[in-house]
Design brief:
319 residues; alpha/beta; Rossmann fold; three-stranded antiparallel sheet; Arc Repressor Mutant, subunit A
């Protein structure tokens, strides 16, 4: 641990002990000795305000526990590799005493979820410009086009949940008064903006499919095409789809049948290896959908991905 000036050993010891005397800082050190993380990621894992996380990071930085490096537009923090003997001894004792602390167990679960999000974000940023080609290679060219089969009324407002690079939005915008695309990836939304450039009836919004940035009962139809497998909480995403639909509104979902091709989830960044029809039906019914139809389709001859499920349903009338 590098010091700018010589510090009396008793003051150094007291400073180190003081920096370990807070629950939040113990949680931060437990996380950051495993993985380099940014403030936004730490805020989600710890479920604390960003200002609180930043304040505790500064204390740990000032005491020499942490180092910081720049990665793109973010600062990533990690535990210093070369802690001095006193700090290493204190942290070793603290780590041993913290074993079995339930709070750290919850932090570990949220850390794993955050790292999955990071991997998906990196995948989408790398493949945003050719995402349509990848989906066509995996699932065939007909998967997205099937969403148009319902011949939606032109006056309807339709949302594409998990709109990706915007190929479907571009097609729909030529037939409908208002089309909304929602995606969590900035890179995908940038690609979608290019795909729909000049189409004034298209609105793009960034958001989690399990917490949609849309008003309740604000759309007539919702599409979710090859997106549910990427959501951490698919049941919550279906509930959100129901929330934003007007009573009687229509929903169309297309996603992979449960599968286990080696390496497929890693290649695509999926969180779930597809779904069983019974599970999807249960989630849809619990969300208030009626007239549910689920069709299993074999993969197209030229596709190398799994078979698909095609689901249509209606939002039940308000009670």
């Amino acid at each position: 641990m590098t010091r700018v000036s010589e510090t009396p050993p008793q003051d150094q010891l007291l400073g180190l002990i003081s920096s370990l005397s807070d629950e939040t800082r113990l949680r931060l050190l437990s996380l950051l000795e495993q993985e380099s993380l940014g403030v936004a990621e730490l805020r989600e894992i710890l479920q604390l305000p960003q200002s609180t996380v930043s304040r505790h990071l500064k204390i740990l930085m000032d005491q020499g526990w942490l180092l910081m490096r720049r990665h793109g537009t973010a600062n990533l923090y990690h535990v210093a590799e070369a802690l001095d003997e006193t700090a290493a001894g204190l942290w070793g004792l603290s780590r041993a005493r913290l074993r079995g602390w339930p709070t750290l167990g919850q932090d570990q679960l949220r850390l794993k979820a955050q790292l999955r999000k990071r991997r998906r974000r990196a995948l989408f940023e790398a493949k945003a410009t050719d995402w349509g080609d990848l989906r066509a290679a995996l699932y065939g060219v007909g998967a997205s086009l099937d969403a148009l089969a319902g011949l939606l009324p032109p006056a309807w407002t339709v949302v594409d949940l998990g709109c990706g690079a915007g190929e479907l939005l571009a097609r729909l915008s030529g037939h409908l008064t208002h089309v909304i695309g929602v995606d969590q990836s900035e890179a995908m939304l940038a690609a979608a903006a290019l795909a729909t450039e000049g189409r004034h009836n298209v609105t793009l919004r960034q958001g989690d499919l399990a917490a949609l940035p849309l008003d309740s009962a604000s759309v007539d139809a919702a599409l979710m095409i090859l997106a549910l497998s990427y959501v951490d909480e698919p049941e919550a995403a279906i509930l959100e789809m129901a929330r934003v639909l007007r009573p009687g509104g229509r929903a169309t979902l297309i996603d992979a049948l449960r599968h286990d091709p080696p390496g497929f989830m890693e290649e695509t960044g999926q969180t779930h290896p597809g779904f069983e029809p019974a599970a999807l039906r249960g989630w849809l019914e619990a969300a208030g959908f009626t007239h549910i139809t689920i069709t299993t389709r074999a993969a197209e001859p030229e596709a190398r991905g799994p078979a698909l499920l095609q689901i249509s349903a209606a939002r039940g009338e308000a009670r």
